[in-house]
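quick one before i forget lol
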Amino acid sequence: MKFKLPPMPRYSRDAVLLFVVAGLSALGFYGINILLRVLFVLRLGYGPQYVGLFNGVGALTYMSMGVPSGALGSRFGAKRVMLVGGAITATGMAILPLAEFLPPGIRGIWLIATQVILIGGWGMFNVNLVPALGAATTAENTNSGYALSGALRSLGTFAGTVSGGLLPGLSAGVLGQSLDMPGPYRVGMWVGALVSLGALIPLVMVRQGKQVTTREQARTSGRFPLLSLAPLLAYVYLHQVAWATCQSFCNAYMDTDLNLPVSSIGLISGVGQFLAILDSLFIPRLAARRGNGWTAMMATLGIGLSLLPLGLVSHWAAAGVGQIGIIILWAVWLPALQVFQMELVDKRWHSLAYGTASMAMGLGFGTTSLAGGYVIAAWGYRTLFLLGAGVAVVGAAVLWGTLRRRAMP
């Protein structure tokens, strides 16, 4: 029996450009920035409670930008809002590391303020990427288009994570500093800012026309079906609470409790992202067979299972296996969710629907980030990971109930 990859459909020029945008933006934001910013904050002398506050403020900023970003995309066009949001994101990345040069009394405020700028811009950019890609694909290749976008996002994150893990070591030699100092991480974050700015170049070449919800569509009769989406939003919130236990604190856990070097932390994340690249390409086949909702539900359950080794075994191998599993399953979950939530609403509501889903994502991430630091201070990282596993099971049960109701005649 021969092993065959799923056939690759044809995509429009705009869709291909948006794939490139997704990959480059992920390299800078999800790869270099996400890996290095927490390690930078730790090198400034802050502990897990401040890391939780730092990440939590970012998540709540993303939550607050969800609906406004979708509304702005509907009003002014996804491309315009993405360009503005991308420029703000790159600016936030560039000015955040300047905290190293500020007095200690101002430093903590600066980190929070620049995190708000960075994540606010990212919300404008990321929320509108989803409906823009939906408009650039056809009914026949929507699933595969989101899966390919996810694969390129994983590829960009893989490249950014591995290179981000190496950048501090290279910078340390040039600066004459050790890896216990913040300087090498600052340089790496500036590289991430330049990459994120470069992601706007292919976005400029995207044609505006068919990618946005027009003003006429926005003015058509009917209200946004918020009540019917409420169970989905509850599920998204619970999923993010579980996922964020690792996303917010896995790197800090491996750095402080397991004493892994930053290059090893980057390598573990990179392995997960590399496997996620291949994993994303098979999502359309899985979704076509079982449905996008079922695919998202099983990915949430899998994330819960992946958190168990992190919570039960204090060893770098267990932490690596758990984090790799979570990265792979996130690559399955996000495209499935994006298509599933669009299946639930009329096309004119796609931007606003993903904006509300993004709001739920940000709220879930913020809840974990803010509360997680206190949980860690009281009971340790492993307790937080076990709590996340339990929340993932509850979230999957909520979506299972939603799918059952939809299946009823």
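fyi Confidence is low (pLDDT under 50) at residues 209-221.
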